[in-house]
Design goal:
CATH class of the largest domain: Mainly Beta
CATH architecture of the largest domain: Beta Barrel
Number of helices: 5
Radius of gyration: 56 Å
Order of helices and strands: HHHEEHEEEEEEEEEEEEEEEHE
Number of strands: 18
Distance between the termini: 167 Å
Number of domains: 3
Length: 313
């Protein structure tokens, strides 16, 4: 093949002019056909490209991204953030090369926890019941404490627990009375005294002797001393047991207990060899009980000595 220079030398100036013309046309056509590609290549080569690692939900991903904010990249890569989730960088921070973005998943769970509060039991002595008997005065009831708790979970693991509220329903103490008398007392009057093994623990003195029982018709108005006539009223010789004295009467064998009484009435007792005469109630309703009592040999405990006062009706 001949070089252009040798060709031109053989063909002359006309051929040289034709070749130059053709080359110029080819160059113009090449420039007109690919102008956009050349421009895009130039722009692309000037935009920064960063390597960014996103850590979330137990996985690490490395992506390539241009100049944008952290939040924009997370949206592009389909990462959603919960209301309590945390980022290690601000969401409006601009990306840079080798950037690490960490998403910490934070969840709060509110729950209630209840615990029972066991009730206590209070035992009280009762001189109006016999030993071995008992009764519930107040039913016991458990209480309850209810806690409102907020648990914080970080990336699925419980990190902390906080008590937000406490509500307490107090328990009800159970009250039980248990008997301390040797037998069921006839008198249900209550006084300020205690029994041990069925007998008073504190008293002024004690007498023993025959104790009888009596009744009175419903029309009866009261006692000699002016005190009311009720079960628990006792007729005495005021020279031996002053009116107003507080008494506790129990048979010597412990099988019969009149119980707590007030020296209120009198009668022809001493001449009859009777230490006290206990009132059993109205004749219409309690005559049989008086007969059943009959005459018992008893201990008469003088718990307190009365002033022997008389208030005439």
């Amino acid at each position: 093949m001949l070089s252009l220079k040798r060709l031109f030398s053989k063909t002359g100036g006309a051929m040289q002019s034709a070749v130059v013309y053709m080359l110029s046309i080819a160059a113009a056509m090449s420039s007109a056909a690919f102008p956009a590609a050349a421009t895009a290549s130039a722009v692309k080569s000037s935009e920064p490209l960063y390597s960014v690692t996103i850590s979330a939900d137990g996985q690490d991903r490395t992506v390539m991204a241009g100049d944008m904010a952290v939040g924009e990249l997370l949206v592009r890569e389909n990462y959603s953030l919960g209301s309590d989730d945390e980022l290690n960088v601000p969401s409006d921070a601009r990306l840079h090369d080798n950037m690490d973005i960490e998403i910490t998943r934070v969840d709060y769970v509110t729950r209630e926890k209840s615990e029972f509060i066991a009730y206590d039991t209070e035992k009280r002595e009762c001189t109006e019941m016999k030993i071995g008997d008992s009764r519930i005065i107040t039913e016991g009831a458990d209480g309850r404490v209810t806690l409102t708790i907020k648990d914080k979970y970080v990336n699925g693991e419980k990190l902390s627990t906080e008590v937000m509220d406490t509500k307490v329903a107090e328990p009800t103490t159970e009250v039980i009375e248990f008997g301390t008398a040797l037998a069921e007392p006839i008198s249900k009057r209550s006084g300020n005294f205690t029994l041990e093994n069925g007998l008073p623990t504190e008293f002024e003195y004690v007498l023993d002797g025959k104790v009888t029982a009596y009744t009175a018709p419903k029309t009866a108005k009261g006692t000699y001393s002016g005190r009311p006539l009720v079960v628990g009223s006792v007729a005495v010789d005021p020279d031996i047991i002053p009116f107003g004295s507080e008494l506790y009467i129990v048979s010597k064998d412990g099988k019969h207990v009149y119980g707590y009484a007030i020296a209120s009435d009198t009668g022809d007792l001493t001449q009859a060899g009777v230490l006290a005469d206990v009132y059993m109630g109205t004749t219409e309703e309690n005559y049989g009980a008086a007969c059943k009592w009959g005459a018992q040999f008893c201990y008469v405990y003088v718990l307190s000595v009365g002033d022997n006062s008389v208030s005439w009706r």
